[in-house]
C-alpha cells in the first residue's frame, strides 16, 4: 500500500496528515516530509495518523527521531490518533507517555493553548 502525505500550516503548527501504511518501505517518505517541515522552521508539529492502517517499528523510529529533533529546538510533536490498534502500539512501547496523543488536531492545539505553549 502507498503512503499518502499532506501538509498544511495552521500557525503556529505544521500539520502532517498521513494515510496508508508506515513501514520500512514508506517511512523514509514520512521522514522526508518531517525534515522538510523542520528545515522550513516549523518546530511545532502535529502528525495526524487517523488514516494510517499499519505502523511498524520503522515508522515509530521516524516519529521518535522527529520528536528529538523538534525538542532540541524547543518545539513539540503531537500525534492525532483514535484507532485502538495504533494506540495499543504506542501503549505497548511506552510511547504513549512520550508523545502527546490526541483525538483531533483541535485537541492537540488546545493542549498547547492551555499549557501556554501555542
From TrEMBL:
The keyword Protein transport does not apply. It holds the Pfam family STAS. Residues 3-112 form the STAS domain. InterPro entries: Anti-sigma_ant (IPR003658), STAS_dom (IPR002645), STAS_dom_sf (IPR036513). CDD domains: STAS_anti-anti-sigma_factors. It comes from the Bacteria. The keyword Glycoprotein does not apply. PROSITE patterns: STAS. Keywords: Phosphoprotein. One of its GO terms (molecular function) is anti-sigma factor antagonist activity. NCBIfam families: ant_ant_sig (TIGR00377). Positive regulator of sigma-B activity. Non-phosphorylated RsbV binds to RsbW, preventing its association with sigma-B. When phosphorylated, releases RsbW, which is then free to complex with and inactivate sigma-B. Belongs to the anti-sigma-factor antagonist family. PANTHER family: ANTI-SIGMA FACTOR ANTAGONIST TM_1081-RELATED, ANTI-SIGMA FACTOR ANTAGONIST TM_1081-RELATED-RELATED. This is Anti-sigma factor antagonist. It comes from Aeromicrobium erythreum.
Amino acid at each position: 500500500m502507498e503512503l499518502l502525505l499532506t501538509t498544511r500550516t495552521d500557525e503556529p503548527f505544521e500539520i502532517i496528515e498521513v494515510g496508508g501504511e508506515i513501514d520500512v518501505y514508506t517511512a523514509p517518505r514520512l521522514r522526508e516530509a518531517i525534515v522538510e517541515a523542520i528545515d522550513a522552521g516549523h518546530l511545532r508539529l502535529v502528525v495526524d495518523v487517523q488514516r494510517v492502517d499499519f505502523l511498524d517499528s520503522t515508522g515509530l523510529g521516524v516519529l521518535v527521531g522527529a520528536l528529538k529533533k523538534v525538542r532540541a529546538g524547543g518545539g513539540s510533536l503531537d500525534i492525532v490518533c483514535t484507532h485502538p490498534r495504533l494506540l495499543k502500539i504506542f501503549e505497548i512501547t511506552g510511547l504513549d507517555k512520550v508523545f502527546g496523543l490526541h483525538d483531533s488536531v483541535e485537541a492537540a492545539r488546545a493542549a498547547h493553548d492551555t499549557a501556554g505553549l501555542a
